[in-house]
Write a structure and sequence with these properties.
six-stranded mixed beta sheet; 17 helices; alpha/beta; TIM Barrel; Urease, subunit C, domain 1; 22 strands; Diaminopimelate Epimerase, Chain A, domain 1; single chain
């Protein structure tokens, strides 16, 4: 006698449940009331269930819906809607400051927004090897604020109007943890580094620009983007309280069809944004938006020369060098960071901390060792790019989860080798294979909009470890496609303690995707070309390739 009535059978597919450490497949699955009831053979499932509807998947590959381990969902949506891309190779064509100012002017003519903002810029990839100055950006507009955002989102360059609106007049005292460059006359050049000063620009320029536009529509488009790439759960990597309410409204109105984990941001010394009872709970009636770990910061980015390293940068920056021994810096004092971690452990709150450089990672480890009360929190180190073997051993003993950023190999690999880190350190960046060999569950992420919402390019980067010229960087850290997919599904769900998703098993939510190619069996070079044909959330088709 069938155990369920009115179920839907999805059949004729290569279904990878992603529940085990080795690949296994099934040919069919049954869904009812948004939940997976069973997977197996067609004959077995037809005997067990009363099938109301049958969906032939035509031999395609089915995976669990991808879980975004770390990105900035709303900022990605805002960047797509309101900013202009200023990317250099391999993802763009910007080669000079003239290219930048031209694209900004074109963007202003086409959109005519309150502010003119570009993102994706990298000073180490243009001819001048520097940021545009305030005077150069003044040629774009004197009346509107103009902002050029570094691809890492840890540095910016502003025109005079943007500096004025942000309160960065020449007698401004720069807060600790931030940098605002001046010329020989003491005048601000417009170039800024890190949160304490960049947050001023966010409040006085970027947020007012966003407020003048329909943010719900922007969120709706962002949701569609993530679903089209196979993410059924996205991540808001560092949120303010207002965003939680906005996401709840978007969910209520049916404008947010992807699920979303919201990580509340915590500035140094600020009040804790949530309680342990709220963490992991849903903040919307549709049970799409859940509260994730508290987000902390310790340093900046390697490609921006602001990650905090144990050894100096391989080659110092040509125009922003501070001294030959420069190795970056912390964006928070060690005392403040320690106090914050102690408070979080006292309240039994999970946290996710941004740490790129191995010196910053050591601060994270030291604080966790000193204050850890509950190993089962599995606190997360976001990026963790230059982590040492000695540090991985400590991370394992503490039960922490590293979330790696392997697409760096493709976009900045040759610069890490030749400029930022040198051959040895560059070859062991993002040590996914080593972590797996040490039985450390890890995840991978795109940090969008730092890099594109493209999990297939991300997976390809983890598998191939090729730079933009096709050179192999760190062959010992290559992983199989299956292991890379575990980092995008099962492990990513476990990172955020989402026990109802990440694998295709009875009792899990019916979040799954249908692909045009099989990432586990195709030629590895072709993984980046995979496209999503269909995306299902809670058993409902929410995306179909046109």
């Amino acid at each position: 006698m069938p155990s369920k009535r009115g179920a839907t059978l999805y059949y004729n597919a290569n279904i990878y449940p992603m529940a085990g450490d080795l690949p296994e497949t099934a040919e069919a699955l049954v869904v009812s009331h948004g939940q997976i009831q069973a997977i197996g053979t067609v004959k077995e499932l037809e005997n067990r269930f009363s099938i109301r509807c049958r969906v032939d998947l035509e031999g395609k590959t089915v995976l669990p819906g991808l879980v975004d381990a770390h990105s900035h969902f709303s900022f990605q949506a805002i960047a797509d809607a309101l900013f202009v891309g200023l990317h250099s190779a391999p993802t763009g064509n910007v080669a000079s400051i003239e290219d930048i100012t031209r694209l900004l002017r074109e963007h202003d003519r086409q959109q005519n927004l309150w502010a003119v903002i570009g993102h994706g810029f990298d000073d180490t990839k243009i001819n001048e090897y520097r940021f545009p100055t305030r005077d150069e950006l003044d040629t774009v507009s004197m009346e509107k604020p103009v902002v050029v955002i570094h691809q890492s989102f840890h540095l910016m360059s502003l025109n005079s109007k943007a500096l004025e609106l942000s309160g960065l007049i020449d007698d401004f005292i720069v807060p600790e943890g931030g940098v605002a460059y001046r010329d020989e006359n003491g005048r601000f050049t417009g170039v800024l580094e890190e949160g304490p000063v960049i947050n001023l620009v966010n409040r006085k320029v970027i947020q007012p620009l966003v407020a003048k536009n329909n943010l719900l529509r922007i969120i709706q488009k962002g949701s569609s983007l993530y679903l089209s790439q196979g993410y059924t759960t996205a991540n808001e990597g560092a949120a303010v309280k207002m965003q939680q309410s906005l996401f709840s409204i978007a969910s209520l109105l049916g404008m947010l069809k992807t699920k979303l984990v919201v990580n509340p941001g915590l500035l140094s010394g600020g009040a804790l944004p949530i309680t342990a009872e709220k963490q992991g709970s849903f903040c919307d009636l549709g049970r799409r938006v859940s509260i994730g770990p508290v987000k902390l910061f310790t340093d900046g980015s390697i490609q921006g020369y602001t990650a905090y390293l144990r050894q100096p940068y391989y080659k110092q920056h040509k125009t922003r060098a501070k001294n030959d021994d420069y190795r970056g810096y912390l964006t928070v004092t060690p005392e403040d960071y320690m106090n914050t971690v102690e408070r979080l452990h006292r309240e039994n709150l999970q946290y996710a901390v941004h740490a790129n450089g191995d010196a910053a990672i050591q601060l994270v480890i030291d604080a966790e060792q000193k204050y850890q009360k509950n190993k089962d929190l599995h606190n997360i180190i976001i990026h963790c790019q230059t982590v040492g073997i000695d540090q991985l051993e400590q991370i394992r003993s503490l039960g922490m989860i590293p979330s790696f950023f392997p697409i760096h190999t493709y976009i900045w690999g040759k610069h890490h080798r030749n400029t930022f880190l040198g051959e040895e350190r560059a070859a062991r960046m993002n040590p996914i294979a080593t972590s797996q060999e040490m039985d450390i569950p890890c995840t991978i992420h795109s940090d969008s909009p730092v890099t594109a919402v493209d999990p297939w390019l991300l997976l390809w980067s983890a598998v191939m470890r090729l730079d933009e010229d096709g050179a192999l960087l760190g062959p010992n850290e290559r992983v199989s496609a299956y292991d890379g997919l575990l980092a995008l599904t099962r492990n990513a769900a476990a990172q955020y303690r989402l026990s109802d998703r990440g694998t295709l098993e009875a009792g899990k939510r019916a979040d799954f995707i249908v692909l045009d190619q099989n990432p586990i069996t195709i030629d590895e070079h072709s993984i980046k070309d995979i496209r999503v044909l269909q995306t299902y959330v809670d058993g409902k088709l929410v995306y179909k390739q046109k």
